[in-house]
Amino acid sequence: MPAQETWISRIEAARGDLDRSSTAARVAGLLREQITDGLLQPGERLPEAELCRAAGVSRNTLREAFRLLVQERLLEHRFNSGVFVRRLTAADLADLYRVRRILECAGVRESATAGPGALDRLDAAVAEGERAAAAGHWPGVGTADIRFHQAIGALCGSPRVDEVMRNLLAELRLVFHEMGSPREFHEPYLVRNRLLTELMARGETAAAERELLSYFDDAEAQLTAAYRRDEDRRAL
pTM (2 decimals)? Predict the structure, then answer.
């Protein structure tokens, strides 16, 4: 099944959950979910008529959902061309990691007082990634990695941090597409996610924070190099 049909069908399946009071926000949420799960990719055009049919909403409602996601830097409107999934820049990448260092390191520091359920969510996300890797489903490993970092942010115990993390990690998923091989990028971080979880479970928050900062440095360097390679190709 083509990728577009896959994400369109998921939106169609969820249309019964939409209610009149928050329809545009819910449609925006469904589209954001397709981005976070890696089904919508940078540069992909969103078919307005097909989306309206799938979600069972008017064009005005859909355009309001688009507007919300443009504000979140996930979509862009191109004059006379339509609405497209945004391709992030190298500057966007650097800023994403700048904010992640602030929020996720705060989450790690809060892990010492977090309840068992909060740490269980970390373990569940790591296990999800390990199962996806065992099945050779590397995009699924990327999705599990997003869930893992959402769970780290959730250790802050703040709905506002949760919302910021949700949006940051949707943008991050768009960055992941810059890597040519999902396995090459994600596989080393499975072990590191497990290590971070174990350090926090043992209450070794200082060691966990040091590991997370090193983790971010390595991932940002890999992604930045991928952006530079792409820029070099475009310059030819």
Answer: 0.85
